[in-house]
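hey
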């Protein structure tokens, strides 16, 4: 666990409560490099619907998400957004800012209240020159992101709408672990519009599919809270 006690989120979270070695980017680093990164990091909390990184601006920090959820999206203008993916606990955002002449071509907005640690990108660049393992971990992170995007493209081109929505709901439970209440109930955290954008369908179609899952006794829905009633049946939609 990246934070030594979940209770700290409710009270006074301190840097000493955080163990960066639980994050793949910081595994296997030289002790002195890890210590320098640790000393430079700041705990930052953001409210819901806060833009952390704008595609129109240069990011100066790399953020590690300790708690909560963000969405990466493309601003289409007229208050419209194309949601590309979500990022949750232990995920990293802002890492493309490590390229000094490049800019992140996506914006990042909080879906829920989030807690992060922020590390200056200038320091990250400096430490990559001192510790090859950090650069290697960064390349692996980029590869994982590319692999995830490739999987998304495959889903959009080969799977039907019901399958894509089912898979996204399972991702929420299995990967993002958003506000888990028991073994089956969790908060999906995003609007139907964002869910539709994620899987490449209209909002109306997303609502119709969710209603179908409810009527089939696969899930229960109350606002953004979802209770998974029959995981096996939902998984069958992925086939």
């Amino acid at each position: 666990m990246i934070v030594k006690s979940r209770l700290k989120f409710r009270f006074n979270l301190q840097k000493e409560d955080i163990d960066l070695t639980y994050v793949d980017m910081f595994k296997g680093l030289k002790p002195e490099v890890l210590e320098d990164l640790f000393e430079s990091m700041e705990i930052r909390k953001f409210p819901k619907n806060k833009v952390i990184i704008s595609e129109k601006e240069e990011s100066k920090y790399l953020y590690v998400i300790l708690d909560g959820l963000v969405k990466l999206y493309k601003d289409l203008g007229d208050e419209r957004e194309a949601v590309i993916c979500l990022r949750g606990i232990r995920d990293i955002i802002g890492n493309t800012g490590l390229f000094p002449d490049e800019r992140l071509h996506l914006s990042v907005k909080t879906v829920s209240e989030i807690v992060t640690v922020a590390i200056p990108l200038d320091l990250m660049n400096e430490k990559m020159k001192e510790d090859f393992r950090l650069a290697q971990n960064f390349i692996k992170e980029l590869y994982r992101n590319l692999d995830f995007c490739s999987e998304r493209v495959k889903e959009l081109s080969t799977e039907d709408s019901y399958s894509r929505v089912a898979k996204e709901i399972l991702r929420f439970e299995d990967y993002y672990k958003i506000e888990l209440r028991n073994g089956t109930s969790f908060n999906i955290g995003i609007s139907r519009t964002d869910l539709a954008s994620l899987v490449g369908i209209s909002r109306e179609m997303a609502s119709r599919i969710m209603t179908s899952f409810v009527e089939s006794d696969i899930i229960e829905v109350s606002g953004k809270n979802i209770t998974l009633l029959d995981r096996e049946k939902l998984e069958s939609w992925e086939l």
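The chain has a mean pLDDT of 82. The CA atoms of residues 97 and 103 lie 6 Å apart.
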